[in-house]
Design goal:
Elements (H helix, E strand, L loop, with lengths): L10 E2 L9 H9 L4 E5 L5 E4 L1 H7 L3 H4 L10 H5 L2 H12 L2 E8 L5 E12 L5 E10 L1 H24 L1 E7 L4 E4 L1 H6 L11 H5 L4 H17 L3 E9 L2 E14 L2 E11 L1 H46 L5 H33 L4 E4 H16 L5 E4 L4 E4 L1 H17 L8 E8 L3 E8 L31 H11 L4 E5 L5 E8 L12
Parallel strand pairs: 1-5, 13-15
Antiparallel strand pairs: 2-3, 2-6, 4-5, 5-6, 7-8, 7-11, 9-10, 10-11, 12-14, 15-16, 16-18, 17-18
Helix pairs in contact: 10-11, 11-14, 12-13, 13-14
Bound molecules: adenosine-5'-diphosphate.
Length: about 500
């Protein structure tokens, strides 16, 4: 400003400051983005520049002589904020202030500025200079930022997530509050480096986590990895999703989120345990039931052979029905045992020519194929990484069903084919048989779910369950579609992730 500045920052003038020379007034007058005014010792407005008029909306003729208290809200006036400002400026040489203030039309803006006392040569107070600007836009931005930060903090708290950034060049870590909460470390404790963090990862998981990070960085891929972390109460599971960042192709950071998945992991382990137990039970039960059932079946046979002619006709009929029931039960138990064995036996994966698996399945079905005079068409089939024996089982079940559920009015025709998907082979067994209503398409893969009575078409209702189990163990899917020419097409996938894309083409 044009005046002399005293060491305390106050302005020294001999005459009344607002009577000062025209040049100074002209300069101040032109400033439009700041409201600049001089006040007398009572707080009455004595000068009023263009900026003040623009910001507050009062023309000079209205503002001049007006108590500056009018520039404050009723609440601020009630709290004596205007007087407090002047008193502090007089006592301390300056008073900074930020607050919502009303314009002439009553709307509020966020004023940010200061008041400085004006002193005469003898040190007496002769008035004040007040400068402020409209900081509404900036304030709104700050509020929004603070709100967004608060929302993020809250979201991270309820979802038990944290966000981190690992700066690769300095090896430093930046953590949000959520991360500290996740690791149960008092906020403010410094987790400065990647090494500090790695110390908290379970020793058995460290190598796997580091390998996942290295792979993501090397191949520019997002990383998803689950691992255990050490916390004061023991250990917890977290799932980390992150993404490498690059600067001109050079990796500079790995940033992402971590979320607590301890409960989910516990439930998963409990489910896996329950599944194992159930499978063990199914195995033991079906295995041990076979023997007594065989006994029932053979004694019924003996009864029929030895005494059949001595019994009443109705008794003979009952024995036949009992034998039939025992046989059905034997078939079901054998299938159940087969299912349990698939589950517990795991997979013996090898390079497997699908056409060989189909040929073996047809061989095993021999007796079922021949009498129905079926046409079996086998297309070009790939080579896959799979358990060949299990693949034979799948084809045997699907082709067997295709023949079993044939229509009486057309000779059965079964086509086995393959089609390459993006990351998998889609193998298909199509028939021209009875077809399957849409509403049963999911449930036929469930245990014991049959659409036909055993008296009409025999079966255990487990064949498709066994197929689904085998396919899922191979990380594939199985489903059924309509065959456009009538009948059904059962399709299943086998991942084709090993070897180049066309490695599976038959020669
Ligand atoms: P099962 O053949 O021993 O009854 P599955 O689990 O193999 O048991 O099949 C379940 C049910 O799905 C069968 O009972 C049958 O109703 C239906 N189904 C299976 N395959 C076919 C097919 N190719 N065409 C029509 N229906 C089928």
């Amino acid at each position: 400003m044009a005046q002399d500045e005293s060491p305390s920052g106050s302005t020294r003038l001999d005459r009344q400051p607002w009577d000062d020379d025209a040049r100074f007034r002209a300069v101040v007058q032109q400033i439009v983005d700041h409201a600049i005014m001089m006040l007398d010792t009572e707080g009455r407005i004595r000068t009023w520049n263009v900026g003040a008029e623009r910001i507050f909306g009062y023309p000079p003729e209205e503002a001049l002589g007006m108590p500056f208290q009018r520039l404050f809200t009723a609440q601020a006036r009630a709290e004596r904020a205007p007087e407090g400002e002047l008193e502090r400026a007089a006592a301390e040489g300056r008073c900074e202030d930020e607050r919502w203030q009303p314009r002439k039309d009553g709307t509020l803006f966020f004023a940010s500025g200061s008041v400085v006392p004006i002193r005469s040569d003898d040190g007496g107070l002769s008035g004040y200079t007040k400068i402020l600007r409209d900081g509404t836009a900036q304030r709104r931005l700050q509020d929004e930022l603070a709100e967004a930060g608060e929302r993020l903090r809250y979201a991270q708290e309820i979802s038990r997530t944290g966000t981190f950034e690992w700066h690769l060049e300095t090896n430093r870590e930046t953590w949000t509050e959520g991360m500290y909460r996740l690791y149960q470390i008092p906020s403010g404790t410094v987790i400065a480096t990647y090494a500090d963090w790695l110390q908290r990862v379970h020793p058995d998981d460290r190598q796997r986590v580091e390998a996942a990070f290295a792979e993501g960085i090397a191949y520019h891929q997002p990383v998803v990895v689950d691992f255990r972390i050490a916390v004061p109460e023991g250990e917890r599971w977290v799932s980390c999703r992150c993404q490498p960042r690059y600067d001109h192709g050079r990796p500079v950071a790995l940033a992402g989120t971590q979320i607590d998945i301890t409960e989910r992991k516990r439930a998963q382990f409990a489910l896996e345990r329950a599944n194992r137990d159930l499978n063990q039970f199914a195995y033991v039960a079906s295995h041990d039931l076979q023997e007594p059932l065989r006994m029932v079946r053979s004694y019924l046979g003996l009864l029929k052979r030895g005494y059949g002619d001595k019994l009443e006709a109705r008794a003979g009929e009952f024995i036949d029905l009992a034998i039939d029931g025992a046989e059905r039960m034997q078939r079901m138990i054998a299938s159940l045992l087969e299912l349990a064995t698939v589950e517990s036996g795991g997979l013996a994966k090898a390079t497997c020519e699908v056409r060989h698996a189909v040929a073996e399945a047809l061989d095993n079905l021999g007796a079922a194929v021949d009498p129905v005079n079926a046409t079996i068409v086998v297309g070009e089939l790939p080579i896959v990484e799979a358990d060949c024996g299990q693949l034979v089982r799948v084809f045997q079940n699907l082709i067997g069903n295709a023949l079993k559920y044939r229509r009486d009015d057309v000779p059965p025709r079964v086509a086995v084919s393959a089609e390459r998907g993006e990351r998998e082979w889609i193998l298909a067994v199509a028939d021209n048989g009875m077809g399957i209503e849409h509403e049963h398409r999911e449930r036929i893969f469930d245990l014991f779910h049959r659409l036909h009575s055993s008296a009409v078409i025999p079966g255990s209702g487990l064949g498709l369950s066994i197929c689904r189990k085998i396919v899922e163990l191979h990380h594939g899917r199985i489903w059924v579609e309509d065959n456009p020419g009538g009948g059904s097409v059962f399709k299943f996938t086998i991942p084709a992730d090993s070897g180049p894309p066309d490695s599976g083409q038959p020669d």
